[in-house]
Each structure stands twice: as C-alpha cells, then as structure tokens.
C-alpha cells in the first residue's frame, strides 16, 4: 500500500486496532521499561507462505512513534520460508513492546490470505480463468484483506455495494424476475457500470442472456450444469462460477472455461501465516 492509500483509508483502522489493545496504558511494558530506551527486534517467519502487509505492520509502530525505523529483507507478494529473517524493527523499546501484537495480527492475517490465495491461483495457472475474492470479509478489515488477495495472485471483485451492480437471488425476488431486475438496474445504474446477475439453473441462465446482462454468475451448480450453462451462454456474457469454492475442490472447475471463479474462502477461511517478533534487545 502506498502512503496516500495508507493515510486516507488505513490509518484510522490501524488506530482503532491499537486503541482496542491499549485502552489507557500498556501496564506490562510500563512496569519493566519506565523510560525511553532504543532497541531492536527481529521479524521471523515460522512457516512457509506468502508475505503481505509489511507496510501495515510498519505503520503500527510509526503511528505510536514516527521515529521508529523498519527494515525489511522481503517485499509483499514474496514467498517466504520457515526460519527466514524477514526484517528488523528499531526504536523505543516501549513502542516495540506495545505495538507487537497489533502489528503481527495484521501481518499474520494478511499473509495467511495471500498464502491461501496463491495456493488456489497456482491451480488455475495455464487457464484463462481469473480467481476473485468476495465481500465475505472481516468487518473493518476489507481494505487489508482484498489487498492481500492481490498479493497472493488473485483479483478483486467489487469492493463494496457502491462499486458495482450484482443482482442476487433476493434482488431478483424483490424485483419479481430476472428480466425485471435487469431492466430496472439498466434504468437506474450509470451506463458505465456492468451488470452481473446470479443464476441457479439453466432456465435462469437463458433468461439472463435474453435480458442482456454483462456477467452471469453460475451459483452452486454442479460442474456438469455449469458446462451446459457456458455452452448456452456462448460468449454472449462473461461467466463467473461461485459457491463453496476452496482449494480442495477448485480443480474440478478449471476445465469449464469460465472467465472467473470467485471464492469467499480466500478471506473467510484462510489460516494465518505464523510469524513472530523475537530477540528484542537494547542498542
């Protein structure tokens, strides 16, 4: 993340996380370190994966004290190995201790998502299908989690409800039919916005094609039904398949020829990447 993105979109969220962890003072740190003293600590990797969120990690410490210095030996998107030294953080020991958990929480979470995304993206290598995330993100963590998906080799679906038109089953129910929902969306939404609609069977796919949507989501269909749907669409709309996609089952979808595969698991089910700050000492 660049400095402008950080200041406009991330700083307030990082400060919220710090305030959650330090409501008045860090009693443990103040007990053992009553005065300012310069120190350094190592950032170590404890398992193989993909690193993401280094700028966010560093910003935790500079928001506590802008004189804190961070040196990294890797960059976001790099593959990292168990036991690898990833960097150093140097500054007031009180800041290093008080910011440690919040900084690691961000970095471990984001790196876990990047690692899981890379595992699935590698399975799609060689096809034209792109891997997408969803809005199934942790509240107030979306900017970080969607960034991590990109660092893992995935692509972002719409960022939020203001970012695009996606008509799902309940929108269709509210409008009365796919045809009516698409017509209303075309009348309301700016012409520069693409319109995507969710379908669950071949009859809905046919109706969506006739309604003239830009993207048709094939939701929770069997691979056999999705193959029929892709043939039925015949290039008249882009295609996205969705519904409980994980690294355990994505390979069955690769040969379908869809344009996109979306997976909520990228952000809601990725385990963290185990990292730690060790060997703190005065300098």
Write down the Rg.
Answer: 23 Å
Any idea what the shape is?
Answer: elongated
Biggest sheet record: 6 strands, parallel
The proportion of residues forming helix, as a percent range, comes to 40-55%
Overall pLDDT score: 96
SS strand fraction: 15-25%
End-to-end gap: 30 Å
Number of helices: 10
Structural category? alpha/beta
Unreliable spans are: none
Strand runs, count? 12
Overview of this protein structure:
The protein has a six-stranded parallel beta sheet. It has a four-stranded antiparallel beta sheet with strand order 3-5-1-12, covered by helices on one side. The chain has a two-stranded antiparallel sheet with strand order 2-4. 42% of the residues lie in helices and 20% in strands. The protein is an alpha/beta fold and 283 residues long. The two termini are 30 Å apart. The chain contains ten helices and twelve strands.
Notable features of this structure?
283 residues, 10 helices, alpha/beta, six-stranded parallel beta sheet, 12 strands, four-stranded antiparallel beta sheet, elongated, single chain
Short description:
42% of the residues lie in helices and 20% in strands.
């Amino acid at each position: 993340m660049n400095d402008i993105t950080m200041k406009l979109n991330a700083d307030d969220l990082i400060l919220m996380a710090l305030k959650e962890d330090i409501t008045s003072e860090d009693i443990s740190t103040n007990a053992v370190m009553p005065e300012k003293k310069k120190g350094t600590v190592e950032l170590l990797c404890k398992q193989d994966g993909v690193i993401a969120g280094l700028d966010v990690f560093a910003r935790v410490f500079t928001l506590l004290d802008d004189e804190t210095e961070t040196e990294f030996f890797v960059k976001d998107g790099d593959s990292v190995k168990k036991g690898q030294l990833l960097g150093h953080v140097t500054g007031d020991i009180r800041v290093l201790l008080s910011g440690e958990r919040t900084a690691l929480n961000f970095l471990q979470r984001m790196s876990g998502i990047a690692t899981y995304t890379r595992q699935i993206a590698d399975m799609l290598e060689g096809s034209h299908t792109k891997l997408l995330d969803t809005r199934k993100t942790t509240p107030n963590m979306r900017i970080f989690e969607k960034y991590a998906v990109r660092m893992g080799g995935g692509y972002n679906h719409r960022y939020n409800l203001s970012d695009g038109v996606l008509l799902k089953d309940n929108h269709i129910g509210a409008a009365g039919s796919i045809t009516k929902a698409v017509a209303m969306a075309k009348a309301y939404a700016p012409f520069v916005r693409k319109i995507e609609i969710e379908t669950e069977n071949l009859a809905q796919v046919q109706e969506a094609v006739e309604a003239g949507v830009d993207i048709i989501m094939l939701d929770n269909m069997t691979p056999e039904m999705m193959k029929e749907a892709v043939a039925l669409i015949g290039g008249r709309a882009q295609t996205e398949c969705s519904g409980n996609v994980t690294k355990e089952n994505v390979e069955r979808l690769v040969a379908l020829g869809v344009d996109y595969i979306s997976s909520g698991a990228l952000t809601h089910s990725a385990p963290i990447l185990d990292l730690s700050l060790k060997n703190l000492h005065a300098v």
